Amino acid sequence: MNLMETIHLHKNDFSKTERKVYDYIVQNPTAIETATITKIAELCQVSTSGILRFCQVLGYKGYKDFRFDMLHYLHQEHVEVNSENLFDELTSKYLSVIRQFNNIDQNKLNQLIKQIKNTKNIYIIGVHYSSLPAKHLVLGLQDLGINTYFAYDYMQASHLYNTIHEDDLLIYFSIEGNQNNVSRFFDLTNASKNTYIITLNPKPKLLIENTLILPGYTLSKQSIVDLQSIVVIFVELLLNMFHNTLKED
Fold this sequence. Notes:
Distance between the termini: 57 Å
Oligomer: single chain
Number of strands: 5
Order of helices and strands: HHHHHHHEHEHEHEEHH
Structural class: alpha/beta
Helix content: 40-55%
Strand order of the largest sheet: 2-1-3-4-5
């Protein structure tokens, strides 16, 4: 029995409050990827204690253990889809991910926009699949009159990284959030407060203070390619928000 089947099995065991959590999670299971217990409580319109009780009914000590098993369930899920309905199925999955954009850390996002506006030297790095959203941000900022330095392979990134000063802004795109290749060329473990990592991985190995985690990791694992499109949409939102701050001046 998988986790979702277990949740359904306990449907009649939930209180009225816990039923709100049940209804939301059944309809939006992938929201668990990026949402904290506080965010889930807000989305379900219950208290955090209501979330805890929901998890305890299922046999968990707390939300953290439940979330761990939910992520495992989502990443292992492989649903056979009729080819005639595949387009509709994929469209629904993409729309579900986009609806989760409101789970992105707004404080860090606004902080990044402020630093783009106020920093003289901006460095943007994205390698392989991550190079597309990185380049999209570079071109978008150039259209808005902001010059940047850009690297799209590890040798370029290594050279660029060695020219960065503490007061410069570094934006590093890594869809997978891995560090194996990165560590061969530069070290982000001692990244300054002006370094940002943008990733889909809810548990990135390249975790630093300014890590922006985007939704879509589960869908990316089910896709034959990394979901560059999700990160590109985020970049377009970022550029529009940045442009709005320019109009306010």
